Amino acid sequence: MTDTRTITPSTHLRGEITVPGDKSISHRAIMFASLARGKSRIRGLLRGEDCLSTLAAFQQMGVRVEEFDNGDLMITGQGLNGLQEPTDVLDCGNSGTTMRLMSGILAGQPFFSVLSGDQYLRRRPMGRVIEPLSQMGAKISGRDTHRKAPFAISGGHLQPATYHSPVASAQVKSAILLAGMQVDGVTTVYEPHLSRDHSERMLRYFGAQVESFSGGAAIHGRVELTAQDVDIPGDISSAAFFLVAGLIVPDSELLLKNVGINPTRSGILDILTAMGGDIQQLNTREVSGEPVADLLVRSSTLKGIDIGGELVPRAIDEFPVISIAAAYATGITTISDAGELRVKETDRIAAMCDALQALGAQVTPLDDGMKIVGGTPLNGATINSCGDHRIAMSIAIAALGASGDTTIVDTSCTETSFPGFWPLLNRITTKTESS
Ligand code: S3P
């Protein structure tokens, strides 16, 4: 049976919270530790379903993983040539990052593998990695003329490449860099706007020769990775729900501890600050090659703004909850250049416009974004999450400031990226209930 949650409006929010580990960094820590030589200890790994899919895939290829009582993992890496051919399909679940980054790794491995995933992932575009990896010499065939999963890879015998990606996508960039890592020569990826650079940072941290420059990144192939201990910060994409909650619910103050604030991910801070949000960065520091801070958020009067261009990839996963902030702001917010939202876990433009309309907000979908006329009081409603974790959590945040209860249908999807979201929400709110 589909699970539901009912959220009651909250009069104020208070507390100090820690959000789970960063999803993007967790995937990469598992992958690069598996490909390194030696033992890497990973602290703060996100135990969300997406990252567990990545972990299971590497275990299927012979990587040894030990778990400590405190939740740390010790991964014994196999080196660039040490993976074994998997004896079954690698199930990427709901995770685009698992599927696309693994494709880059498997393209360089001299064996046969098949990647598949859940009903949502099997609908998402994979031609964006299959095409360039095929150009590099991998033999890949898949459903829908090699554009969708399941697809099969016969890897090895790659050539280095220079690739101009039509989309600002860290998954595409990373897949090509990871393929390039396994061949002699330099592989270069150019992208229209800078996407998140966790791969470049962590590959360097593990000893790879990677250069970042404005417009892209390059990797020198066949440099072995050396095991490293990695501390994973809290996920700014998960923190985003509580940042918006703290801003829109009156009389609120929340301290979010240990959040990653990598500039390629911190568009949400720029956007909410430009909307008038009171967010302070405290105790900024660097951990395992990534910038980290504590974030203090207080209720604020928000105003609508225009969002587009280079800000979009820097906040790509936050648009569902940004649209909630916009509905509570005065004036108009226009989101453009964000057509990528249509090919996320679900079509997030359609899903958020439907959800906001159900709550009574004034919102119009655009081909590449949406227009929100803020300030209309929202009323509780019953809304389906469409099986998308970020849609479910965004609706929950919207519900905190609405009149009357909101029932969210299909809520277990939050396990994808944010195990413990519902109890945490319950802890900081005054009157939230779940059923
Ligand atoms: C991710 C990149 C982004 C993002 C996704 C995680 C990553 O996807 O939306 O949640 O870890 O590299 P795209 O590369 O498709 O933009």
What features would you describe in this structure?
By secondary structure, the protein is of the alpha/beta class. It folds into two domains: 220 residues, UDP-n-acetylglucosamine1-carboxyvinyl-transferase, Chain (Alpha-beta prism), CATH 3.65.10; 209 residues, Alpha-beta prism (UDP-n-acetylglucosamine1-carboxyvinyl-transferase, Chain). Helix content is 30%, strand content 27%. It has 13 helices and 23 strands. A four-stranded mixed β-sheet has the order 2-15-17-16. A four-stranded mixed β-sheet has the order 4-5-3-14, with helices on one face. The longest helix has 13 residues. The two termini are 13 Å apart. The site of shikimate-3-phosphate (S3P) has 13 residues, from helix 1, helix 3 and helix 6.
Question: Would you tell me which CATH topology of the largest domain applies?
Answer: UDP-n-acetylglucosamine1-carboxyvinyl-transferase, Chain
Name the structural class.
Answer: alpha/beta
Q: What kind of sheet is the major sheet?
A: 4 strands, mixed
Major β-sheet strand ordering? 2-15-17-16
| CATH superfamily descriptor of the largest domain | Enolpyruvate transferase domain
